[in-house]
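Homework help board

Subject: predicted structure for assignment chain

Our instructor gave us this sequence and asked us to write out the predicted structure in token form, then describe one feature. I got the tokens but I'm not sure how to describe them. Can anyone check?
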Amino acid sequence: MKERLLGKTPEELKQIALSAGLPAFAGKQIARWLYVNRVRTISEMTNLSKAGREALAAIAEVGMLEPLDVQVSADGTKKYLFPVRCPVGAGHDVEESCVEAVMIPEADRKTLCVSSQAGCKMGCKFCMTGRQGFHGNLGAADILSQFFAIDEAGELTNTVFMGMGEPLDNWEEVKRVITVLTADWGLAWSPKRITLSTIGVIPTLRRFLDECKCHLAVSLHNPFPEERLEMMPVQKAWTAAEVVRLLKTYDFTGQRRVSFEYTVFDGWNNTPRHADALVRLLRGLECRINLIRFHRIPDFPYGPASARAMEEFRDMLSEGGVTATIRASRGEDIFAACGLLAGKHNKG
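My token output:
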């Protein structure tokens, strides 16, 4: 199998160039072709000699994957379906794996919601991705294809690792992507343009906090351990209280922000006692709570809270001193909203 160049650093590209008989400085040239010019093929790297391009193409490929399908919501949200080459197959035919990336347009920004795994190990009961099980980690080239192969590739202003999968369960590849996004030789984005969402995988959460300056979003959904465990098996391994204790040892008063994702289920997690418990749990941590409307999925016992109920819960949190906002739902008509991504290819 050929080496995929997309996702490699200039130093790594230098070693590949040398193995193809190219000079060492070709590594920087290749990086520019990949991340500035965003070529799809080695043949487009025209400042390399023809013989050098042929030698490189014999052992490597750009590795960018094109979307199989795109759907457009009435609100302008676009959902792209991508094939992937999963390095970890988990007993699954990896050639059939697909993931979805969602482009969310707003007046002054275009945000990409990107996937990091095919399926997910975490098994949250209210998430369609979690219901399908785990089919493999995405390599950096798979993840970067979601940035480079969409129509809006040159217009993206922000990204959120909130698509399919748990980013911290595939941290090495996600970290590699963030390096490409933020490095001077890559896209040169500020880390403030990137948010990573996690359910709280504590061992790699520590690494993220130490190794990365991007914003953090933590999926919380319930402050009571036994109730959270009912929906989120991760609570058994790493509790919400442990995650919050860890976060309180870091500084979020400056450039980096932490927020908590809280999907609101009617009557299950939006009572006054839940608001009081959230205020107690988060006291002393500079943060905000994003309230998310639940989108119905089959065979699930709870329904979404009304707009009025969500406003009342927001107000309870605000009165307790916790900043809370209601996140606008986008792309629900094409199953692109929170919790609905399933990587399904409509072949009809």
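Reply (TA_rk): Your tokens look well-formed. For the description, you could write something like this. The first helix runs from residue 10 to 19. That's the kind of observation they're looking for.
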